[in-house]
Specification:
With about 190 residues, the protein is of the alpha+beta class. About 35% of the residues lie in helices and about 30% in strands. Strands 1-7-6-5-4-3-2 form a seven-stranded antiparallel sheet, covered by helices on one side. Helix 1 crosses helix 4.
Length: about 190
Amino acid sequence: MLRKILVWIVALAVALVGGAYLLPRHVHVEREVLVGRPPAAVFPLINSLHRFNEWSPWSGLDPTMKLLYTGPEAGVGAHMAWAGNSKVGSGNETIVESLPEQRVTTALDFGAQGAAQASLLLTPAGTGTRVVWTLEMDLGMSPVGRYFGLFMDHLIGPDYERGLQRLRALAESVPNDADSLARRPNP
């Protein structure tokens, strides 16, 4: 009887591990919002990691979170590292691509949790801007990571929606003048 139970446990473990490799290796999360300001007014808010924390869905979750900024204030090479509680974790982010009024792409490093790439894409939409926030992650060969990947959209998607709503509110709260956004002091 004990031997049958052991055989079933081993068979189940093999099936779970083997089944993981049938799951997608790559994760894609995407959310969008329409902002009532032109791309020139939205771009400064996404091109600076200092400004990111004004609309980030994770800002405020840990009032004692430590932030370290290095590199330029905005654009390619701007870098932010953070360390916080279990709600925000720790990691770092670097802007790796910055196309004015079009796109900002960042490389994210979450340490043992892996690496990812995030992009914010701006597209003119009438007098406003369609903002699309994406996350791309390669889960590698980890069976646990592949199962975790099944839930990434449900885990990250609501945060992205909240962040995009905050970005829209911030962009729409200032005059429709890109220069005033660019000159606005950082908190």
